[in-house]
Specification:
Elements (H helix, E strand, L loop, with lengths): L1 H10 L4 E8 L5 E7 L10 H11 L4 H4 L20 E5 L3 E2 L4 E2 L5 E3 L4 E2 L11 E4 L4 H7 L5 E4 L4 H8 L3 E3 L2 H6 L7 E6 L2 E6 L6 H4 L15
Parallel strand pairs: 8-9, 9-10
Antiparallel strand pairs: 1-2, 3-12, 4-7, 5-6, 8-11, 11-12
């Protein structure tokens, strides 16, 4: 490669811009030469251009409505619980279409059911709360835990409390079989433990409680 670069530089001296070098992992210096004319990038930064246009845009409330009324920010609603419960949830997933293989056959057919938790690990707990339970969630949550809001505006809550708060979507509610707030979801082996906690008392209900037995190895139930 170096020989090619040196020959090219000697034949086309006018095309050589300037030499530069790089260091290899073993400390050796390797000289490189830029071949051909280079030009500065004249296109504006895409993000900066988007932000500039947004700054110039006047959003008419008559068209977009008030922020707290936006359907995209509305979360699924769960009722409060008055009974403490810990239960097991296995989030089985069934394919709705065939997945082909490289030969045109079917690798996994529609209807094939599997447990994603056999391949994935939830990195933190999920704490699902209503608006009047956010402060409790903040004192309960660890740094990596996700606070998910039921029946409120997660964007407004994020601004108010200075911590990311996510909205509860219907598909998440269904996949995790969420029924009440507050709830705490945590992965245990290849299943979820869903803990439903009467608000605001939590400690007294948790004393003496044991984690329910998960599905037996090799069982789909």
């Amino acid at each position: 490669m170096m020989a090619v670069l040196l020959i090219s530089a000697s034949i086309f001296p006018a095309a050589v811009d300037r030499p530069w070098s790089m260091s290899l992992t073993d400390g050796r210096q390797v000289d490189r030469t830029v071949i051909g004319q280079t030009y500065p990038i004249v296109e504006p930064d895409a993000l900066a251009e988007i932000e500039a246009r947004i700054a110039k845009t006047k959003f008419d409330p008559k068209i977009f409505g008030k922020e707290h009324e936006w359907s995209a920010l509305q979360s699924a609603i769960l009722p409060d619980t008055d009974t403490y419960e810990r239960r097991v949830v296995v989030p089985f997933f069934a394919l709705s279409f065939d997945i082909p293989d490289q030969d045109g056959g079917v690798l996994y057919p529609a209807g094939y059911t599997f447990n994603p938790l056999e391949y994935l690990k939830l990195p933190s707990r999920l704490i699902i709360v209503a608006e009047d339970q956010i402060q409790w969630a903040l004192t309960t949550a660890e740094t990596a835990d996700m606070i998910i809001l039921s029946g409120g505006n997660a964007l407004e809550a994020t601004r108010e409390y200075g911590r990311p708060i996510f909205k509860l979507e219907d598909r998440v509610r269904e996949r995790l079989d969420l029924r009440f707030v507050p709830s705490i979801v945590e992965q245990e082996k290849t299943y979820f433990i869903v803990e439903e906690i009467p608000f605001p008392s939590r400690a007294s209900e948790m004393k003496g409680e044991e984690t329910p037995a998960g599905p037996s190895e090799g069982s789909d139930d």
